[in-house]
Amino acid sequence: MFCVKGLIESGRLTSVPSRYFFEKYLKDDCINSEAETIPIIDFSMLTSGSPEQRYKTIQAIGNACLKWGFFEVINHGVPNTLRDEMMRASESFFDLSDEQKREYAGKKLFDPIRWGTSFNVNVDKTLFWRDYLKIHVHPQFNAPQNPLGFSETIQEYCKRVRELANELLKGIMESLGLEESYIQKAMDLETDSHQLLVVNLYPPCPQPEVVMGLPPHSDHGLLTILMQNDHVGLHVRHDGKWIPVNPPPGSFVVNIGDHMEILSNGKYKSVLHRAVVNGKATRISVATAHGPPLDTVVGPAQDLLDNENRPPLYRGIKYREYLQLQQSNQLNGKSCLDHVKVNINDTYHKILPSPPISVELMGRLKQLRIFNGVLKDKASLIKTTLSTKRQTSFIRRAILRATTHSSSSPPSSNRIDAVIASGNGSRPRACACIHAIMDRLHGTRDTFVALKCLYTIHNIITKDSFILKDQLSIFPTFGGRNFLNLSEFHDDSDPESWELSAWIRWYATVLEQNLTVSRVLGYHLSSSDSKKNDKDKEEKIFALLSSDLLIEIDALVGFVQEISNVPNSLHLQRNNLVYEIVRLVSEDYRLIQREISLRVVELDERMTSLSVDQLTLLMSALKKFEDCKERLSLLFVNRKKNDGLWHLIGETKMKIETTMNKKAEEMALVRIIKRDETREWGRQPFRFTSDGSWLGLDRVSLTVSTVR
Ligand SMILES: O=C(O)CCC(=O)C(=O)O
Ligand SMILES: [Fe+2]
């Protein structure tokens, strides 16, 4: 693997290779060394036992977070000997032979140990002048075997810094007016927090002014704690200027990460910073990023929100997926955070009348409702146990267990499997099972019960249980588009239930459209028929008439449209049940993309034989599909973008346009020949445009059906 250190040590370097040229550095270079410096926090005052000193320090931390997003910590209790040892160990890791380091090269984001250069060489347009070692050190500790003693040093260092981070997080929580252990409890930080050790090495550069060590970025986690060797290089963005950070010896530099910005609902901002390099000496910085457990969905703290004045500004996202998002894009300012920002104009408080009761009372009423719900579940379970109809009571019990009132977590896969098993044996059992789910769905006004019923139905559709799926497709016998009959569902007992009601209406429509598509295609999207390899499918599609393919595309695009009609309250994905629902829907979407793509490719090949009507239909379907793109990318912010498909759609649209224009010209020619004597028409007026309309129709009476 190439790396900057190797480049320097090769001895052949006289000037910087052009792929390291960082253009923005020169333009954006407004360094202000005389300005104020970042605040200093005396950590010992936080833990001294004096409430007054603690209070003052918490205020100072709050101010630093608010104004700077950065502070320096002194008297932190991490011994200098350990810090020095960590620095020496870091240096000796990079001094290992390339062969020893290569074991950790070319690794993926969640591989335990990664040695590399720049940020992500697969996506970086410009290379950065840094090499790195990244190790996931908590909750699972990892370490390279070499150099000798390295593992022990980083284990001790990371443990001490983690303890420091936990104490600082408590102070930050208090400064936000939250309980000090709020974050620890909400995210199981004591045991499961995620800690990433990042050792940055910036070798001296012959032209330091044209390269960048690390470009302006914000950190992904909650908090980053950084130490550096004797060389300055970190710049922090403050009041429109870059401020060089020159921390007091023995101190740590601490900064707020994107997840603290999310959690504090934007009160504490993650701040841009960058690392520049110098021409004389190697700079090393050791950063530890402290974040929530990887599978925790982080959204704004509930206690910081109110419906009237402080709506959520970010939607929830799993930390793991946020990391993936950052890794798969160029490191570029705060662009990742933009993906999870909620458009303030979209939040429900605009449409929801202010609740007539206080937030506190509402909270208590909600508790009471949940308690009532749990009692109801218990009573229903007892009733089914006492029932004499053994068969149906068995089914109903399985359904009750999968769709409880008590929690907003999705039913476990065991519970879902139990429902499927209960209805899977025979046609009458399948029929009883579907009816029992529908009874439960239509008999409740509780949002979570309804969402869980729909989630159970979705699992029936996606799992391989033909008889249940089939029974679902014929429910109820009168069919129709709104057969789940939830278009009027509203639970207005509190604002969250109100917002969730919109998700229920949306989810029901998505499921209805899923079944509609199955009818049109003749197989379920997630069935084994659908999972056939592309070759088999291409053959099947090849045998279809173009008119049938167009009907199928129309239904598939209709499905995409329903998905893209997702409610605006995207932040509700912080709720685990909603999150899981979106995950399942994204699986559907992935399958639809494949189905659409295969059909578009086939029609693309048949393009010249398609009629004008057919071309117009295809163009209109592709346009509708494209219109959904933006909304879908907001909903599936962290999933694969499938650029290949969008490219195919763009190309096909262009081809349709060209084919249509060619046909129009042919048409005009026919007319000209027909009316040769009068020569009253020219060839120019006909043009078909990419928005699917004809230009010049006012001048020509066009009968498209005459030309096929
Ligand atoms: O090297 C530095 O000072 C900054 C490092 C940094 O920002 C990072 O690792 O995220
Ligand atoms: Fe950083």
Structure description:
- The protein is of the alpha+beta class and 708 residues long.
- Among the domains are: 19-289, Sandwich (Jelly Rolls), CATH 2.60.120.330; 356-479, Serine Threonine Protein Phosphatase 5, Tetratricopeptide repeat (Alpha Horseshoe).
- 48% of the residues lie in helices and 10% in strands.
- The chain is built from 24 helices and 16 strands.
- The chain has helices spanning 4-9, 23-27, 51-67, 80-94, 98-102, 150-175, 182-187, 189-192, 258-263, 319-327, 335-340, 359-386, 390-402, 413-423, 427-442, 447-462, 466-473, 495-521, 534-542, 546-564, 576-605, 612-627, 629-635, 643-674; strands at residues 40-42, 70-74, 113-117, 131-138, 194-202, 214-217, 223-228, 234-238, 241-244, 252-256, 273-275, 283-291, 297-298, 317-318, 687-688, 694-695.
- Strands 1-2-10-7-12-5-4-3 form an 8-stranded mixed beta sheet. Strands 6-11-8-9 form a 4-stranded antiparallel beta sheet, with no helix packed on it.
- The two termini are 59 Å apart.
- 2-oxoglutaric acid (AKG) binds at residues 198, 200, 214, 219, 226, 228, 233-234, 273, 275, 285, 287.
